[in-house]
Design brief:
By secondary structure, this protein is α/β, with parallel strands linked by helices. Helix content is 47%, strand content 18%. It starts with a strand and ends in a 7-residue tail after the last helix. The protein binds glycine. Glycine binds next to loops.
Length: 365
């Protein structure tokens, strides 16, 4: 199965497959360099790296492995510098191919290193988590976190190929599955009522990531992300903003929890429920949609409120986020399933009242 991200000369395929057997042929079709770097995590390389490298080597691709730590703190300029030093140290490879083999952190860091090394070398996304396969590997936003904010330093650099080997998802720990499923729920709300209904009707299959369910979830999500990116590659036309449903509060919660308390998906599940409650309160959607969303998140083992969280820390993190526009947070609010609006027009008092309810147990922060 191939889905194309249509961006003129920068178009690229997203391949959905059950193994890496088709990878060398896909690389060959794109005439990508036969030497390069596989950027990944140590544990992932130990588990799947040997098979992947064998497939590549047998087809004439020579890659050296570089590993980075498995945490959001690795998404730093220091990690990028380490990668760039390694790239520059191998002078024989004038234009290396960078293969990002991992989740969102690996994709963002390796993609950014590929964007700036020699002013841009080709890279390929080999995402290994559900979240990365349906979201972060697609779209070309690469970058790192700095003390002033998450993803504050980065570049647009589209991959040449996204290769989703869905067989790897079967070994994902339950918490990472649920985290990825939160992004799939997001796609259902912003663009695909049928996907939302599928999630409602097949929770056991989706949570178990059964092969048929995985195909549906990954394919439909990739189609939505590809279409949005094609409309708004550089995030200037407004289409991409819809992808931030749940992220206004979600990113702030992640930061307030120091990226340890909640996974990305857990934080955006809370953020989606809060945004939906805010939308109903402001008259954008009915309470029925909020109830359906909360029920679905609960069914998927995702949190819907941020208990025992200091509201002050969350509010401060929200003010630092890129989604704060002209002094006001930008909200993505559902109107009905499949349709959202983006607005900065909510009154601060209304936001605070609603969010304090989402961030329960606060009020003292
Ligand atoms: N790399 C994720 C995005 O561009 O949306």
């Amino acid at each position: 199965m191939t889905i194309t991200v249509r961006l003129g000369a920068r178009s690229y395929p997203i391949l959905i497959a059950d193994s890496y057997r088709g990878l060398p042929a896909a690389l060959a079709r794109l005439r990508l360099p036969r030497e390069g770097w596989l950027v990944s995590h140590r544990a992932l390389v130990a588990r799947h790296g040997r098979a992947l490298r064998r497939v590549l080597l047998e087809a004439g691709w020579h890659v050296r492995v570089l590993t980075i730590p498995e945490s959001e703190t690795a998404k730093s300029l220091a990690t990028v510098e380490r990668l760039l030093r390694a790239f520059a140290g191998a002078r024989r490879m004038r234009t290396p191919l960078v293969l990002a083999f991992g989740g969102g952190v690996v994709g963002d860091v390796a993609g950014f290193a590929a964007a700036v090394y020699r002013r841009g070398v080709p890279y390929v996304q080999l995402p290994t988590t559900l979240l990365a396969q349906v979201d972060s590997a697609i779209g070309g936003k690469t970058g790192v976190d700095v003390s002033a904010g998450k993803n504050l330093v980065g570049a647009f650099h589209q991959p040449r190929l996204v290769y989703n080997n869905v067989s790897l998802l079967r070994t994902l720990p339950p918490r990472q599955r649920r985290s990825g499923l939160a992004e799939v729920i997001k796609y259902g709300v912003i663009a695909d009522p049928a996907l939302f209904r599928y999630l409602e009707e097949h929770p056991a299959e989706c949570l178990a990531l059964e092969p048929r369910a995985v195909r549906v979830l990954v394919e439909r999500s990739c189609r939505i992300k590809a279409a949005v990116v094609a409309k708004d590659e550089r995030d200037v036309r407004g289409a991409r903003a819809a992808l931030n449903f749940g992220h206004t509060l979600g990113h702030a919660l992640e930061a307030a929890g120091r990226y340890r308390r909640w996974t990305h998906g857990e934080a955006i599940a809370i953020g989606m429920c809060a945004a939906a409650a805010l939308a109903a309160d402001a008259g954008y959607c009915d309470e029925g949609l909020v109830a359906r969303l909360v029920r679905l998140c609960r069914r998927y083992g995702l949190p819907t409120h941020a208990q025992r969280t200091a509201w002050g820390a969350v509010a401060a993190a929200m003010r630092l986020d890129k989604k704060f526009v002209r002094g006001r947070p930008r909200w993505v609010l559902p109107r009905r399933l499949g349709r959202v609006v983006v607005t900065e027009a909510l009154r601060p008092a209304q936001i605070t009242r609603m969010l304090r309810r989402s961030v329960r147990g606060s009020g003292t922060g």
